Amino acid sequence: MSPAPPIPPPIQPVPVIRWILAVIQAIDRLRLYALAARHPGLEIDASASTNLATARYQLAAGARLRIASGVVSERRPGGIQFSLGPGARVEIEERTWLRTDVGPIHIVAFAGASLRIGPDCLLNGCHLSAKSAVQLGRRVFVGPGTRIFDADQHDLDAERAERVDPVSIGDHVWIASDVTVLRGVSIGEHSVVGARSLVGEDIPPHSLAFGTPARVRGSVGDRSRTR
Fold this sequence. Notes:
Layout: H1 16-38, E1 42-44, E2 56-59, E3 64-67, E4 72-73, E5 80-84, E6 89-92, E7 97-99, E8 105-109, E9 114-117, E10 122-124, E11 127-130, E12 133-136, E13 141-142, E14 147-149, E15 167-169, E16 174-175, E17 180-181, E18 186-187, E19 192-193, E20 198-199, E21 207-210, E22 215-219
Parallel strand pairs: 1-3, 2-5, 3-6, 4-7, 5-8, 6-9, 7-10, 8-11, 9-12, 10-13, 11-14, 12-15, 13-16, 14-17, 15-18, 16-19, 17-20, 19-21
Antiparallel strand pairs: 21-22
């Protein structure tokens, strides 16, 4: 009996998927260049994710949107919606993750308003709206369904006009899902706000707060090293 023929080495598959992804990335990079040409106030760092090409951008005259290095997102058409009024300023700092797989992200800055998202933040299917100023510090986590407003959004009645007050959220804060943060609120660093809370008053640093309205129920340690 003749010996069995040797088994040939496995055929290495052609890296078609890698090639397709490279083509998609190149197309998205071109789309980003086209968006920057169409919107003079749009600045996206070259190292930011090319998936940002699938976001929707509405920038009025004089508005500026700056997206810094290392900002990432999923490739979901319309998963991020930027709406900036005349003269508005929005800054998204380094390594922030605009996560859209759970739900879309809406970032709105009305005329003359400023909205800043600090470095290493995680925005997860949430809504941020500024008519004056909204500021998130370093490594702030914002859960899905959460809404942050610095204004009443409408006049209450003919005698009582809409009120607008800045919102400030400190470093290493975690705001869980379906939370509403109202105008004028300051949330201190290293704090945690529980799900479905309504935050209408300031929360001191290192606090655990939850409820409707949210109240301080405990303390939180150093969150700078948490995952």
